[in-house]
């Protein structure tokens, strides 16, 4: 489930998209190239085999003779493989059977084959084999008129039967044409090339008129596919071995190229993170042309944001200083009624609260990070000096790498108010914990005081509402904290401390 959820997030990464695209290009394109080359090689080897079988056909035709409608073949052929029993190269000649002659038991056909065998001296002591062709273009039956010595001991009729059942039969091409096919012989695949020809002679008939006689026949060359398959397998092994090496090399080169190309983006991301964490003020402008303008604009934005925030705070400080003097003068009037004095105090509290809210940097266009330990260490060192009677001990458990994505003064205001209230309410101990878990900054402040009634957990964050027995301040500290936390889209909760027994304030911010 986690992998399924992370996949869409991964596709938002430009680096991940480029790497996946490069890998898909290599892993898909190269296998397609391999399959294409393999098919092309098979066609080439098969074409070479067809040419080789054609050459053997012509060598058979060169020594074939017909005398008085009788086929005459030499006892030994020039190609020695035709003379070696079961050599893997075979030759076969078939002739059509006259329709009037029976196919299997005709004694005349048997005598004709016997005469052919005697005259050719090539098929001595061999049984007659009849071939029934089912070619729609030529539905005539054929018989074996001659076979090479290499076919001795091979049951050709079984091969023909198997070929017929598998529709991969002996081809029967038209006269003057050749046809290529495949058959199973002795349980092994073989290539077959058939070529049809006809001897035509002109003789005088009984009436002394010239008469053309034809002797049609088909020559078959059969060759074992072992050589063909060995070539294909050797080529496949070599091809896929080198494609795998090429694939690995291309992936490595592409990954290195992508790493080198995206290195400026990685550096930009690293510098932006450093700025957010408060470790740097500006970006290094030594970037490629496409990113250099972006880096300059970001630096301009940073400088403008910082200067504007500084001017804004100075103006608010001046406003606060100018308002304090008239309010002090009004409060010093002796004839001021209690109701008027209370209203002046209310005005003073409202001005202080609103100035604190206005000075917050939570609404800034750029949130710079600040290390929490830099703010917490100062507060932990100084607050015990103020609350020395009774002596308050502040225990600090702070993650040194924790970063608050916001302004240092806002974090000081938040921690200062909460720690100050904890020191006022505590008997002797205050605990400050800061940790980072699951992309969240968690700050916890606990004390060993009386705690806060659960009914007041919501009211204490309102201006002027107090839940303590001490009288210092104006009662707006927690309201300021609440507004600051809300401005950073954080969470602020109050409960009872299980460790110290007093109040427990917990802050949660996204990092």
TrEMBL record:
It is an enzyme of class 2 (transferase). Keywords: ATP-binding, Kinase, Membrane, Nucleotide-binding, Phosphoprotein, Transferase, Transmembrane, Transmembrane helix, Two-component regulatory system. The chain crosses the membrane at residues 239-260. InterPro entries: HAMP_dom, HATPase_C_sf, HATPase_dom, His_kinase_dom, Sig_transdc_His_kin-like_C, TCS_sensor_his_kinase. One of its GO terms (cellular component) is plasma membrane. GO terms for molecular function: ATP binding; protein histidine kinase activity. The keyword GTP-binding does not apply. It catalyses: ATP + protein L-histidine = ADP + protein N-phospho-L-histidine. It is found in: Membrane. The keyword Ligase does not apply. Residues 259-310 form the HAMP domain. GO terms for biological process: phosphorelay signal transduction system. Residues 318-511 form the Histidine kinase domain. Its EC number is 2.7.13.3. This is histidine kinase. It comes from Shewanella pneumatophori. The lineage of its organism: Bacteria, Pseudomonadati, Pseudomonadota, Gammaproteobacteria, Alteromonadales.
């Amino acid at each position: 489930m986690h992998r399924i959820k992370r996949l869409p997030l991964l596709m938002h990464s430009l680096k991940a998209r480029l790497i996946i695209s490069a890998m898909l290009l290599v892993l898909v394109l190269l296998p397609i190239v391999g399959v294409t080359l393999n098919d092309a090689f098979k066609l080439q080897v098969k074409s070479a085999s067809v040419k080789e079988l054609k050459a053997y056909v012509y060598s058979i035709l060169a020594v074939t003779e017909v005398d008085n409608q009788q086929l005459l073949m030499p006892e030994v052929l020039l190609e020695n493989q035709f003379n070696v029993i079961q050599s893997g190269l075979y030759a076969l000649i078939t002739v059509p059977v006259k329709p009037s002659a029976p196919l299997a038991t005709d004694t005349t056909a048997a005598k004709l084959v016997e005469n052919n065998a005697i005259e050719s001296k090539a098929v001595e002591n061999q049984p007659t084999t009849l071939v029934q062709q089912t070619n729609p273009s030529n539905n005539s039956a054929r018989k074996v008129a001659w076979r090479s010595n290499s076919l001795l001991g091979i049951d050709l009729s079984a091969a023909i039967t198997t070929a017929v059942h598998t529709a991969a039969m002996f081809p029967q091409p038209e006269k003057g044409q050749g046809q290529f096919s495949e058959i199973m012989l002795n349980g092994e695949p073989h290539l077959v090339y058939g070529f049809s020809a006809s001897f035509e002679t002109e003789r005088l008939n009984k009436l002394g008129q010239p008469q053309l006689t034809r002797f049609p026949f088909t020559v078959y060359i059969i060759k074992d596919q072992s050589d063909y398959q060995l070539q294909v397998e050797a080529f496949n092994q070599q091809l896929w071995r080198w494609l795998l090496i090429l694939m690995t090399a291309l992936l490595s080169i592409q990954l290195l190229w992508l790493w080198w190309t995206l290195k400026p983006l990685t550096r930009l991301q690293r510098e932006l993170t450093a700025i957010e964490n408060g470790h740097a003020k500006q970006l290094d402008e030594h970037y490629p042309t496409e990113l250099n303008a972006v880096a300059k604009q970001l630096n301009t934005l940073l400088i403008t944001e910082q200067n504007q925030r500084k001017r804004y705070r100075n103006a608010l400080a001046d406003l606060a200083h100018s308002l304090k003097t008239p309010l002090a003068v009004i409060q010093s009037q002796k004839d001021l009624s209690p109701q008027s004095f209370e209203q002046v105090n209310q005005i003073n509290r409202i001005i202080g609260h609103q100035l604190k809210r206005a000075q917050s940097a939570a609404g800034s266009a750029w949130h710079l990070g600040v290390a929490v330990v830099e703010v917490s260490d100062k507060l932990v060192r100084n607050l015990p000096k103020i609350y020395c009677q009774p002596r308050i001990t502040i225990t600090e458990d702070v993650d040194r790498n924790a970063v608050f994505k916001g302004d240092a003064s806002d974090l000081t205001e938040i921690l200062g108010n909460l720690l100050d209230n904890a020191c006022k309410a505590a008997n002797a101990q205050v605990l400050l914990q800061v940790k980072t878990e699951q992309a969240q900054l968690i700050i916890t402040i606990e004390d060993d005081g009386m705690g806060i009634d659960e009914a007041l957990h919501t009211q204490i964050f309102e201006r002027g509402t107090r839940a303590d027995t001490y009288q210092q301040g104006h009662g707006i500290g927690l309201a300021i904290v609440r507004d600051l936390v809300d401005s950073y889209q954080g969470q602020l909760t109050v409960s009872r401390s299980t460790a110290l027994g007093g109040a427990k304030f917990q802050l949660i911010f996204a990092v």
